[in-house]
SoxAX cytochrome complex subunit A
Amino acid sequence: MRLLSGGVTLAAVLLAGAASADPDPTATLIVNDQIEIATRAPAPDHLKDVFDTVQSGWLYRTEETRALQMDDFDNPAMVFVDLGLEQWDGVDGSEGKSCASCHQGIDSMKGVRASMPKVNPAGNDLWSLENFINACRTQRMGAEEWKWNSDPMKQMTAAISLQSRGMASTIRIDGAAEPYWEQGREIYYTRYGQLELSCANCHEQNAGKMIRADHLSQGQINGFPTYRLKDSGIVSIHGRFVGCIRDTRGEPFKPGSPEFRALELYVASRGMTLPIEGLSVRH
Ligand code: HEC
Ligand code: HEC
């Protein structure tokens, strides 16, 4: 076991995996009393030697936090979805266009979040949802690109992600996407920071255990973007990756970097049998 710092090992901050720390086996996610979203699923083939079942991060949260995601009136992320809808209809840039000018209603984005990240139309890069949005802004609207973790970008990804709620993932990890997936897997198993911890050290080997006061999940991204109570705001997938690498006292890659987009594809593939939750609530 690697040293955390001053002789503290990861084992010391992990309270041994008591059965009570495992997710509540009876919890079922039903949104607005209507939409049942599976939070457990058989592991995808490429992960079968690691997990039998993949589980949503929702299962690892307290009953109170879980409840917030079960009703759109209580879900604080919905305020940001409304702001995203305003952006959708807002004219911006030299061409005098809004997103709606070309795409019509936001429901035209149904299934889009479930397919991300994917190889771009030119076939020479892996793009996240944010890249597609910025490509339309710069190439089709004559508008400036939004910063990855800016408010308008997070509001827009929130509004677009909601359109895929409950849908199955359609990501591709073969063909042109395969090299990115391989790169992402490599990053997932690399130890970072002074603590020398990989994503897998926490989210694979110790999922279900308590780390300090936190219940460690499998680190799935099917619920992203997510509303974090701690931040009172929306957190992007790459924003979460930054936080986790900082916790290892490592120097994270930049949001939107090729490394984080590849990691996004690989992490998405670890939960590709789970439906898209759009939008989850975490503490
Ligand atoms: C020191 C342990 C640790 C390491 C290393 C770590 N994480 Fe995390 N991560 C956490 C904790 C604690 C949380 C919050 C509780 C939870 O959901 O597991 C979290 C949450 C997450 C979540 C949010 C899950 C959800 O459902 O809300 C994702 C995604 C994630 N981590 C991905 C990663 C990735 C990718 C890496 C590697 C770059 C990584 N983590 C490295 C401890 C870690
Ligand atoms: C001038 C027309 C036009 C405008 C304005 C426009 N788009 Fe697009 N957008 C397109 C076209 C064309 C495509 C590629 C074909 C397609 O997937 O519909 C596209 C693709 C996309 C995609 C990728 C869809 C997929 O399935 O891969 C997203 C996401 C997107 N646009 C979001 C937006 C957002 C958000 C805005 C406003 C900020 C916007 N677009 C403004 C024309 C436009």
About this structure: DSSP finds ten helices and 14 strands in the chain.
